């Protein structure tokens, strides 16, 4: 059987090349992307975790989907997407033959997944009800979910085989969690309240309440598998034990310092784990009521805990990390990071290479856009959400706003100056003047707002004005446009006077055109344009945003930004959509949307090459363009802002083609070795990685390809410096692609079923064969790979392939196998596992 969407992409590692800046990002950043997106920064925040019945997988419910981790390597192997809102809870079927995973989300659905293939089998819709918890009966025949809509809560049960609804029960107060008894005949539903709430015990077959138990507000609940104990975690910090048959209260197991978010029994029922808002996990002996151990390591409230089936490992999850613990010793085994809090703001450097993202926990992350890799983490001295970010025009400073202002050097990580938060005001807008000398911010309270201007070098506050929603400097840094409830106010900074108001209604966003003659402004879901000098509104308007605000409010355009040539405008709306427009024609070039949460910010680099959006689902999305601002026939053949191996390969794939072609970089009407060598000569002019979304290892050049290119380039041998540099780069590339030693690498995937790939590399040409043996040493399959040139045989197109069958075409049995590679004098053996 195939493992869940098991995908391993081998990476070429270029060790000693200064000219070839290729660093591949984690491929999970491209899994399950919405249409038009090329990468995702961040993995969303966590809400629940669960071990698979065999313990080899950990499923993680997140704000963007369901992550599946391998519990041996602790790496991502799949992202199950389909929920259009946050995934709140999940549970595996205990029936080993069913291969089912159930998830419940804020999108009012319960979804049924095949755990072998990751396929979505069924979507069970619950109109207007957010699903907050799901559970399986121990016999695997029934699963249930608790749904909420406002103050109304519902328990719904389904038949696990037919997926048909069985019964539904409505509550008049909050229901937060559910658990089936060990015999699958009863179901307990925990409830929260302002001061207290009953816990209900229902008969699964009839749906009748068989017991109402006064409790202190149940936030989490679990039955022991031996049928003896029911454990609850209270919103008021207590862990309590009850008789699972009599439902009488037995004892209170000490206390956490805050609410208890999760409880889980060890499979034998003797040990209970509880997790709380105090960042702690407590392990209890439920037979004698003794606290065995306190697990410390999380820096945030612990939301979920899960024991693996054999009971020797406990996984625990906070909003942003998963920790694996040795149950016997309490020691940490592994930490999974990369999940984040909600994104509140983003900013791009002017060259589009660096992106800053600000989060609800008061932290800022810096990303290299081309590598899709996190450069560093800057922590501001506050837990207040980061609501504003702005790069200086030269990229040497980053202004971070959270009510106060912190000016940082993003390279040295030094704070240059700070303006501390005063009172309850929130920062709603922040921007540098184009000359880099002034920083403008808007601080807003419920009743008013104020604009403050600062000297960038000293941090001294220089001017103050009545505020609005958004601000934009004129290109000469002399004027400030302020989107306000009464229109767009134009302020003259030298005289400190308002000289004009554009429009007459509530404006939410404003942006000067690069020539300074026009201002674009967002009102509701429409973008209007004004002539700055005359104050007249122009006839054209942009009306491509057509969605609905997820909060039920009237949608509006909260961000507008021009490209540096003024030909393209970006607009982002609270309906979740981002549009790119041709300013001259008013035509919408592209529309992007796909976050599972609310779109909170968008950024468009002035060079027109990078578009990013941030959401409270905890992620930043980078978007593809179908209309790059850069001209064709440049050495950046694919228009991704980087000159690298991808451009080289594109030119080679178009050899001999005539006429209009982006690969004809010298414009002579034909694609040939001249174009390829000129592209090679430009390597290193832009220090960035290849566009990960377009990376295909099967299309990477081989050593033989590069050797042929180099031979042709030497034959032409033009004397100009650019062409000679291209030859030098090709020589260095050829050396890079020539392995220093012959190596047999690990097969992938492993374990596998029914097929696997076996990569290797050859330091010199040789006759190559591969022999596969079973555990008894008997030959299962001989693979004659023939004479192979020196080079890397890593990708699926070049690695050795075994279909899991013997010489007569019969599938081999499950178990351990060995494979031996012979290449000339080289001989090496490794182990692999086929699992059915």
Salient structural properties:
four-stranded antiparallel beta sheet, 4 helices, 65 strands, 6% helix
Ranges with pLDDT <50 over ≥5 residues? Answer: 1-25, 685-698
Profile the largest sheet.
Answer: 4 strands, antiparallel
Report the portion of residues in β strands.
over 45%
Roughly what percent helix?
under 10%
Average pLDDT metric:
86
Overall structural class, as computed from helix and strand content, comes to mainly beta
Number of strands: 65
Helices, by number, come to 4
Radius of gyration: 30 Å
Q: How far apart, in Å, are the first and last alpha carbons? A: 5 Å
Topology of this protein?
Elements: E1 37-41, E2 46-51, E3 57-62, E4 66-70, E5 76-80, E6 87-92, E7 100-105, E8 109-114, E9 120-125, E10 130-136, E11 142-149, E12 152-159, E13 165-171, E14 175-180, E15 186-191, E16 197-203, E17 209-215, E18 218-223, E19 229-234, E20 238-243, E21 249-255, E22 260-265, E23 271-276, E24 280-285, E25 290-296, E26 304-307, E27 313-317, E28 322-326, E29 332-336, E30 343-348, E31 354-359, E32 363-368, E33 373-379, E34 388-391, E35 398-401, E36 405-409, E37 414-419, E38 426-432, E39 438-444, E40 449-455, E41 461-466, E42 470-473, E43 479-484, E44 487-492, E45 497-502, E46 509-512, E47 518-523, E48 526-531, E49 537-542, E50 557-562, E51 568-573, E52 578-582, E53 588-592, E54 599-604, E55 611-615, E56 620-623, H1 645-653, H2 673-681, H3 703-716, H4 721-736, E57 743-744, E58 756-758, E59 760-762, E60 766-774, E61 779-788, E62 791-793, E63 800-802, E64 815-823, E65 826-834
Antiparallel strand pairs: 1-56, 2-3, 3-4, 4-5, 6-7, 7-8, 8-9, 10-11, 11-12, 12-13, 14-15, 15-16, 16-17, 18-19, 19-20, 20-21, 22-23, 23-24, 24-25, 26-27, 27-28, 28-29, 30-31, 31-32, 32-33, 34-35, 35-36, 36-37, 38-39, 39-40, 40-41, 42-43, 43-44, 44-45, 46-47, 47-48, 48-49, 50-51, 51-52, 52-53, ...
Helix pairs in contact: 1-2, 2-3, 2-4, 3-4
């Amino acid at each position: 059987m195939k493992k869940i969407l098991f995908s391993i992409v081998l990476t070429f590692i270029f060790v000693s090349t200064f000219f070839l800046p290729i660093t591949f990002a984690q491929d999970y950043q491209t899994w399950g992307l919405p249409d038009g997106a090329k990468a995702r920064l961040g993995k969303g925040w966590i809400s629940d975790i669960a071990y698979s019945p065999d313990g080899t997988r950990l499923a993680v419910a997140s704000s963007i989907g369901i992550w599946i981790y391998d519990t041996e390597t602790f790496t991502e192997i799949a992202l199950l997407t389909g929920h259009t809102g946050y995934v709140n809870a999940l549970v595996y079927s205990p029936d080993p033959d069913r291969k089912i995973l159930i998830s419940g989300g804020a999108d009012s659905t319960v979804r049924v997944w095949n755990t072998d293939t990751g396929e979505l089998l069924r979507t069970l819709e619950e109109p207007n009800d957010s699903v907050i918890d799901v559970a399986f009966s121990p016999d695997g025949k029934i699963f249930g979910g608790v749904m909420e809509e406002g103050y109304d809560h519902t328990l719904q049960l389904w038949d696990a085989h037919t997926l048909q609804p069985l019964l539904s029960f409505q509550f008049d107060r909050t229901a937060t969690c559910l658990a089936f008894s060990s015999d699958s005949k009863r179901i307990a539903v925990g409830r929260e309240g302002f001061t207290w709430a009953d816990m209900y015990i229902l008969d699964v077959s009839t749906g009748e309440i068989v017991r109402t138990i006064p409790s202190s507000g149940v936030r989490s609940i679990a039955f022991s598998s031996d049928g003896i104990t029911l454990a609850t975690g209270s919103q008021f910090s207590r862990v309590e034990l009850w008789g699972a048959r009599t439902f009488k209260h037995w004892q209170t197991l000490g206390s956490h310092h805050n609410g208890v978010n999760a409880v889980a029994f060890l499979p034998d029922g003797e040990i209970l784990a509880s997790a709380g808002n105090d960042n702690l996990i407590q392990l209890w002996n439920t037979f004698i009521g003794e606290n065995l151990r306190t697990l410390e390591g999380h820096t945030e409230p612990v939301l979920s805990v899960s024991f693996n089936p054999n009971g020797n490992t406990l996984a625990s999850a906070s909003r942003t990390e998963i920790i694996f613990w040795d149950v016997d010793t309490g020691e940490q085994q592994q930490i999974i990071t990369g999940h984040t809090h909600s994104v509140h703001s983003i900013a791009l450097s002017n060259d589009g290479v660096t992106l800053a993202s600000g989060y609800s926990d008061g932290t800022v992350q810096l990303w290299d856009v081309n590598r899709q890799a996190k450069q560093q983490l800057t922590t501001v001295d506050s837990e207040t959400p980061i609501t504003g970010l702005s790069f200086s025009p030269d990229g040497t400073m980053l202004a971070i706003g959270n009510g106060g202002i912190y000016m940082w050097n993003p390279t040295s990580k030094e704070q240059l100056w700070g303006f501390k938060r005063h009172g309850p005001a929130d920062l709603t807008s922040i921007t540098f003047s184009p000359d880099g000398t002034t920083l403008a911010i808007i601080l807003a309270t419920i009743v008013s707002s104020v604009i403050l201007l600062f000297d960038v070098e000293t941090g001294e506050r220089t001017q103050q004005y009545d505020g609005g929603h958004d601000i934009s400097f004129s290109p000469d840094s002399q004027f400030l446009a302020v989107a306000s409830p009464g229109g767009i106010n134009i302020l003259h900074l030298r005289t400190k006077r308002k000289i004009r108001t554009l429009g007459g209604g509530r404006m939410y966003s404003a942006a000067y055109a690069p020539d300074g003659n026009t201002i674009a402004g967002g009102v509701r879901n429409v973008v209007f344009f004004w002539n700055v000098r005359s104050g007249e509104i122009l006839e054209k308007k942009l009306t491509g945003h057509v969605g609905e605000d997820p909060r039920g409010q009237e949608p509006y355009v909260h961000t507008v930004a021009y490209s540096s040539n003024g030909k393209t405008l970006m607009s982002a709306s609270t309906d979740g959509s981002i549009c790119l427009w041709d300013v001259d024609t008013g035509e919408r070039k592209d529309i992007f949307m796909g976050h599972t949460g609310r779109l909170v910010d968008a950024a468009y680099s002035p060079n027109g090459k990078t578009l990013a959006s941030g959401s409270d689902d905890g992620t930043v999305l980078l978007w593809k363009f179908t209309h790059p601002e850069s001209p064709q026939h440049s050495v950046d053949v694919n228009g991704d802002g980087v000159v690298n191996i991808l451009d080289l390969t594109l030119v080679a794939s178009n050899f001999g083609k005539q006429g209009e072609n982006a690969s004809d970089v010298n414009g002579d009407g034909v694609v040939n070795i001249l174009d390829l060598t000129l592209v090679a000569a430009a390597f290193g002019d832009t220090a960035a990685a290849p566009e990960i979304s377009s990376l295909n290892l099967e299309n990477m050049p081989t050593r033989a390809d590069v050797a042929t290119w180099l031979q042709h380039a030497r034959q032409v041998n033009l004397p100009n410096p650019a062409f000679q540099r291209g030859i030098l780069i090709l020589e260095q590339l050829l050396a890079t692609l020539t392995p220093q030693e012959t190596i047999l690498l690990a097969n992938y995937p492993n374990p596998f079923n029914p097929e696997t790939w076996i990569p290797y590399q050859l330091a010199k040409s040789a006759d190559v064969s591969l022999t596969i043996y079973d555990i008894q040493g008997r030959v299962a399959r001989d693979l004659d790979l023939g004479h192979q040139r020196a080079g890397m045989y890593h990708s699926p197109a070049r690695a050795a392939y075994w279909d899991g069958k013997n010489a007569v075409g019969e599938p081999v049995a499950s178990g351990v196998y060995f494979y031996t590679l012979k290449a000339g004098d080289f001989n090496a053996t490794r182990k692999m596992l086929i699992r059915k």
